[in-house]
Specification:
alpha/beta, four-stranded mixed beta sheet
């Protein structure tokens, strides 16, 4: 058993893993009622996977629904809750919160355009028969809220059951780029996908690779270990994960290796929730706040309660992109990194400057760009990867962020008896985009697993 800091959150009950994304529920303290009658419009956060603001209708004279903020009575930096407005998970862009349905390619049709109830370009009617003028409309799930008109430019609404792509040409193993030898004196290179608070799973995965011992201490000598971001939210013990990674960083350095981490969109999200709370940000539509986005993208109150300045300082200093042994490591499968510089050093310096300036609007824009995804998966995917590699170097991109079950089109798979398959759908990293990209988010929050892999991948 790992020492005290490695256990699940104090006072928490048994850990119940989210079965699949479609079974994800908004925490009780974050539920937001949504009306479906057409009338005046306002923007609220819809589903926990869709932190993009979506217009929702309400009856004439009816007061706007207010979010139920987390208990922040002991936090003097928090403002009172404001009206809510990705991308955010996700599944994983306001351009939406953490939404795996959010494509990075602006030329791709919006995922919601293929609506099951009305065909391409038609928003599904979930209110039943034609709507009379006065009667009370049935309440709908926040994830089913759809705009009456076209969404604002740059927004891509999705349905609660997020779309997946299964083109039938998944590359299981592809030729790896020419590998560079490890720098003298340094050992093998490992990467870890999105953890999202699943501390026990992380400890087990690291131990299985021989990186830590039975007490949870570094045991890999001069090995190099990179975490690809997203330590908190959705899972039971995000702060415990951060504490572990910080401790392993010190232990690895003392042993001649290193343990480092990259900035993920959920690091930006929890930093923003703590710093800016309910301060309105310029989302491009309606009102958005970091606090509301954090809650609706899996924010856990016990993480916020235990979040300390040392955690915030550590996260704020994380780099956004690095190159190791011919592998370009980054959190998100997006080309948005190109907006922040033409070299790796420029990108990291720019991200750090934005965070340090402490401007809510700037931080929100950085967050929403880091939540974009799926830039590498379709026909133009290989070219998008090549653009990043030509700019920053390396022969292959390795990323987290977008869960592999989405990339494989296997979310919510069921067995022949109609029961959801309890076996993990992910067996290892996913190589795709003509062998130029490696996805490392194994979908630990759904029907997947937490991935730790040595690079280069074996052919």
């Amino acid at each position: 058993m790992v020492e005290g800091s490695m256990t699940q959150g104090a006072g928490q009950g048994p850990v119940v893993r989210t079965a699949t994304l479609r079974d994800f529920r908004v925490p009780p303290y974050a539920q937001v009622p949504v009306q479906s009658q057409p009338c005046s419009e306002e923007y609220v956060l819809a589903h926990p996977e869709d932190s993009v603001p979506q217009p929702v209708s309400r009856l004439p004279g009816e007061s706007a629904p207010q979010p139920a903020p987390a208990d922040r009575s002991d936090d003097p930096d928090r403002a009172d809750a404001t009206d809510q407005a990705d991308d955010p998970d996700r599944g994983d862009d306001p351009d939406r919160g953490d939404d795996p349905g959010q494509a990075d390619d602006p030329g791709r049709p919006a995922p919601a355009a293929e609506a099951a109830d009305g065909g391409p370009g038609t928003a599904p009617d979930r209110t039943g028969d034609s709507v009379p003028q006065a009667p009370q409309a049935p309440r709908v799930h926040p994830g089913d809220a759809v705009p009456d008109d076209e969404p604002p430019e740059g927004y891509t609404p999705t349905q609660r059951d997020l779309p997946v792509v299964n083109r039938g040409d998944t590359v299981l193993v592809a030729a790896a780029p020419a590998q560079q030898p490890a720098p003298e004196g340094l050992g093998p290179l490992y990467v870890v996908g999105d953890v999202h608070g699943y501390l026990d799973e992380l400890v087990a995965a690291l131990a299985a690779q021989g990186l830590i011992d039975s007490e949870g201490h570094w045991s890999a000598g001069n090995t190099r270990l990179w975490f690809l971001g997203d330590f908190t939210d959705r899972g039971p013990d995000g702060i415990g994960v951060i504490d572990l990674v910080m401790r392993l960083s010190a232990e690895a350095a003392a042993a001649g290796g290193y343990c480092k981490a990259l900035m993920g969109n959920h690091e930006l999200l929890i930093i923003g929730a703590r710093r800016f709370g309910d301060t309105p940000v310029n989302s491009g539509a309606g009102t958005a706040t970091f606090q509301a986005a954090w809650l609706l993208n899996g924010g856990q109150k016990n993480d916020m309660d235990r979040l300390q300045d040392v955690h915030l300082q550590w996260m704020s200093r994380l780099d956004a992109v690095v190159e190791e042994d011919g592998h370009l490591l980054m959190h998100s499968d997006t080309t948005a990194y190109l907006d922040y510089g033409t070299t790796i050093e420029d990108v990291n310096d720019t991200v750090h400057e934005i965070i340090n300036r402490n401007d809510a609007d700037e931080c929100w824009d950085l967050f929403r760009k880091f939540t974009k995804r799926f830039a590498f998966r379709d026909d133009n995917g290989p070219q998008a990867v090549r653009e990043l590699l030509a700019t920053y170097g390396g022969g292959r991109v390795v990323h987290g962020h977008s869960p592999i079950p989405y990339l494989l089109g296997e979310v919510g798979a069921e067995d022949a008896d109609g029961e959801e398959n309890s076996e993990p759908l992910v067996e290892g990293p996913h190589v795709y985009a003509d062998g130029l990209a490696v996805a490392m988010d194994g979908g630990v929050t759904m029907a997947g697993r937490l991935l730790v892999a040595q690079l280069p991948l074996e052919a």
